[in-house]
Structure formats: structure tokens, C-alpha cells
Amino acid sequence: MSGLASGLGTAILTLFALYLLGLGIAALARPEKARVFFSHFASSPRLNFIEAGLRALVGLAFILAGPDTAAPTMSVWVGGFLLASAIIMAVAYRLHRLYAVWAVPFAMRFVRLMGAGAVLLSVWVVWFRWS
């Protein structure tokens, strides 16, 4: 894989880690605001496609940056999973919406725990890419 592709993947993973860190801090500090944010997941076809597109972008980033990560094979698998799930989300919006109707209210009870998880995941993404 070219240095440019790997660099692009690294840049996207960096932005993803920063997003996760910000989301995690927000969920820990202002859980009510995080609940509003989470309540919009799969709430409309437009937001669903944005969510699926961003998931696909992060999946592609894992694949592109894979050769330079701590575990190249794992990077390809994580990226492939994210890409495949993004395609399913985009194609099967109604199923994703049904899942969100069930999952989001359930997850709202654990916003602070999800915030801590997002912070830990952001640290893992940084370690995974640069160790």
C-alpha cells in the first residue's frame, strides 16, 4: 500500500480517535446532551446514510493504515467489519431503524459507561496505529 494511502488512513483514524475522545468526555460531563445526540441515530434516512458513510470511511481507514498498525491483519478485519456493516446499514435502513428503536432507549441507561468506553476506545485506536 502506498505511503499516501496509509497516510490518509492514519489521518482518518486520528480524526476518529479525536471524535471518540470528545464524545466520551461529553457523555461523562454532560450525559443529558449525549442522550440527545444518541437519540438521533438512524432517526431519518439522511442521518442513517451519514452514519453509514462515516462508518465506511473509518473502516476504509483501518484497511489503508493496516500495514503500519500494531496488528495489520486485525486492522483489515476491523476495517472489513465496519465496511460490511456500513453497507448493511445503508441498504437496510428500515431494519437499522427498528434496531435503533430498541437499542437506543436501552443504551440511554448507560451513557456514562458508554462515555468511558469511548474514551478507552480512542486510546486504543491511537495505540493501535502508533505502537
Walk me through what this model shows.
The chain is mostly helical. It contains 6 helices and no strands. It has helices at 3-29, 31-39, 45-65, 72-91, 93-108, 111-130.
Class by SSE composition: mainly alpha
Question: What is the element string, with H for helices and E for strands?
Answer: HHHHHH
Q: Strand tally, please?
A: 0
Percent of residues in helices comes to over 70%
**Looking at the structure, what is the overall shape?**
globular
- Total DSSP helices: 6
Please describe the biggest sheet, giving its number of strands, its sense, and whether it closes into a barrel: none
What does the average pLDDT come to?
Answer: 93
Determine Rg (CA atoms, Å): 15 Å
Strand content: under 5%
Runs with pLDDT <50, length 5+? none
The end-to-end distance, rounded to whole angstroms, is 19 Å
What is the topology?
Layout: H1 3-29, H2 31-39, H3 45-65, H4 72-91, H5 93-108, H6 111-130
Helix pairs in contact: 1-2, 1-3, 1-6, 3-4
Brief summary of the model shown:
Helices cover 86% and strands 0% of the residues. By secondary structure, it is an all-alpha fold.
Supply database-style keywords.
mainly alpha; 6 helices; 0% strand; 131 residues; globular
